[in-house]
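Exercise 7.
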Amino acid sequence: MSEAPPAWGVQYTLSLPSESAARAAAAELSGMGHRLTAVRVHDHFRFVPSSFWYGQPSMDPELEGWWQVFSLAIYSGYERMALEPFFRSERIRVAHAARAHGGFQQGYSEGHAATLEGVFARNGLVHEQAGANVALPSPLPKDPARPPAGPPWKGSEVGEPAVLVQAVVAVAERMYSSAEDVPDAVGWLLDEEFAFGEPYGSTGEFLGDLADAAAHQGTCTDTTVEAVPFLMELVCDDNVAPGSRLVLLGDLFRLAASGPAAAVSLADRITALGGAWEESAAEYLTRRAIGSKLSRLLSRWEDESDAVRFALAALAALCGTRDQRALSGLAALPAPAGSSRADVVSLVAALLGGDQGGLVSALDRLASWLPSVAEKAASPNVDLQSLGLAILPNLVLEDVASGIVAEHDQP
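Solution. The predicted structure, written as tokens, is:
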């Protein structure tokens, strides 16, 4: 007989506006079968004399005076991956409990149950149920079936790394004749150390460095805003291989969606704090900078492949550009009814056309086969427009990725 898989643990963290609200939420989680539940004032280590953080300012001043719940749930009898569909429903349920008591779910961490129980900080412990496991349904829920993908795109080569580097450097030299005018995100391309450095082993590696220089870890900054004209010029440059242009369009997707993505992830927190979402200046300016240069890209519509047209229409939607050519062009893309691509095209069309009913319908269809969308949409505080924009980059990139041909796969 095969050995049973080790029990798995999840520690949930909730933030609540008062001690009474935190205790009420903790009681609810204990009632759900959680083994250990503790309640502590937010940033409690600031009040512990032996802590490095004793007496220091709060790392999250917005939550000054709030309370936190730390709750450990144990699940046994199954391998971790088999539990994923159930874990999503658990996260939704825990987030609902936090909202019901005026707070929000701040996060969660996972690991082997024995390890998490051994390191669980018992300060402020209010509920302990020794040996308790969360009751699991039988059979376990499974992820919904995914619709078939759309027809394959025409292959788009990314090009050899040396050729791409040469093309990118040429664009930088053409745009920035004076070293004083070079944005920080581009300067390294014109540096002598870069010119005489080791050649890149793959095109993807170079494109990754380029994306990180413009927006480190995907975060928009003033440097990102300055780099947008350069990125847009690269996408328009015919010396950059079509596959690499698609990758660069993907970078622009993520930058344009950074504000809506943050709005979705922070929706419960913002509501609990009684505020309204405001994207950062860098996020707003980055999206506006992309939108201001988009007309040049869209003017090339007739000369582009279907995959690039799909990407351009999505980028126009992300930038709030109501381009009729892109909207009508969506109907000509190979997206048969019942395919996952058809659902994504419907989302792009609804966003491009400002169609609220179409947006609701498209999100409902996507949520029916994409659990991550269903999980985000479960919060009543999530704005549907923001949700549609936030999920769009990954949906489009996952689709067009099948048509991007890496250099080692090129004939």
